[in-house]
Amino acid sequence: MKVLLATGKPFATKAVEEIQQIIESAGYLFEKLESYTDKSLLLDAVRDANALIIRSDIVDREVLEAAPNLKVVVRAGSGYDNVDLETATNRDVCVMNTPGQNANAVAELVFGMMIYMQRNQFDGSVGRELFNKRLGLYAFGNVAKMVARIARGFNMTVNAYSPTLTHDDLRKEGEYGVYTVYSNRELFMNSDFLSLHMPLLEETRNCVGYELLSLMPLDGVLINTARKELLVEDDLMRIMEERPRFKYITDVMPDSHEEFQARFPKRYFSTPKKMGAQTAEANINAGLAAAGQIVSYFRKGDEQYRVNNKT
């Protein structure tokens, strides 16, 4: 069995070393393709691969069709919209993710960006604190739960709404000190800070527009470490134009980045590339989980974290 690690955005060196150790200790061949800049390099590398570990790399129909021996793809992270699930299913390829492994890294970034913006990008002017403010979490998966835990240290009131969970489900999360709300409207109305944690699905694409944003306080702060496609960018632009104190901070650069930056330089911040999982610890956690899942898949048929349908 050949396991290919294909990462345009490489893992930390220690993570790669430990991934390789897990794969080779299981008796499989390990190969890596790092920092590639042309899709043709990936197409060549997957031709004889039986398993593939990726990060944000695009695994579309062309990639899957170039890999006739491929049996399993593991996305080292939680989001998997970069993989063509339908084609994978049709080709009998199991696609898995590694939920929760990057959660703390992303949650810490949420607070790092919040502090940076509340202190006016550290320009020396008078800023504002997070203490005692209201934080809304749109969806309540692994990252949102870690955000809620950290929020305790700031004595924030944390509200959560998730359309995929019942209110009883959310009430069971008492250890996080979270209050449940009964609609997305209620969440936006009661949040000084609103953090998006929705996965990108057809039903969540463009799910945050002018109507919801207008329910937030005039000086509200929207945080997005999930996917840029959750937002209607024109509506966000309109809100920021109408509200001189509204702020937007994101780890997923919008299509209109340059316009946001030019029009709202002190109220908008985007990381230059997605940085949520870019810590040595998260690299190791997600990478080792991916390697372990591949070994379990081949040895025991374990598909616990499968995200696509079976044929």
Distance, first to last CA: 22 Å
Quaternary arrangement of the chains shown? single chain
Q: What is the CATH T-level topology of the largest domain?
A: Rossmann fold
Query: Helical region count?
Result: 12
Please state how the strands of the largest beta sheet are arranged side by side: 8-7-6-9-10-11-12
The whole-number mean of residue pLDDT values reads 94
What is the CATH H-level superfamily of the largest domain? Answer: NAD(P)-binding Rossmann-like Domain
Radius of gyration: 21 Å
- How many domains? The number is 2
Main sheet? 7 strands, parallel
Structural class: alpha/beta
Helical percentage: 25-40%
CATH class of the largest domain: Alpha Beta
CATH architectural grouping of the largest domain: 3-Layer(aba) Sandwich
Residue share in β-strands: 15-25%
DSSP strand count: 12
Describe the structure in brief.
By secondary structure, this protein is of the alpha/beta class. It is 36% helix and 17% strand.
Describe this structure in words.
- This protein is α/β, with parallel strands linked by helices and 311 residues long.
- It has 2 domains: 2-101 and 278-300, NAD(P)-binding Rossmann-like Domain (Rossmann fold), CATH 3.40.50.720; 103-270, Rossmann fold.
- Helix content is 36%, strand content 17%.
- It has helices spanning 13-25, 39-45, 61-65, 85-90, 103-118, 142-152, 167-171, 184-189, 210-213, 233-242, 257-263, 280-300, and strands at residues 2-7, 29-34, 51-54, 72-75, 94-97, 134-138, 157-161, 178-180, 193-196, 221-224, 247-250, 268-270.
- A 7-stranded parallel β-sheet has the order 8-7-6-9-10-11-12, sandwiched between helices.
- Helix 10 links the parallel strand 10 (221-224) and strand 11.
- Helix 1 (13-25) runs parallel beside helix 12 and helix 5 (103-118) packs across helix 6.
- The protein is elongated, with a radius of gyration of 21 Å.
- The two termini are 22 Å apart.
- The mean pLDDT is 94.
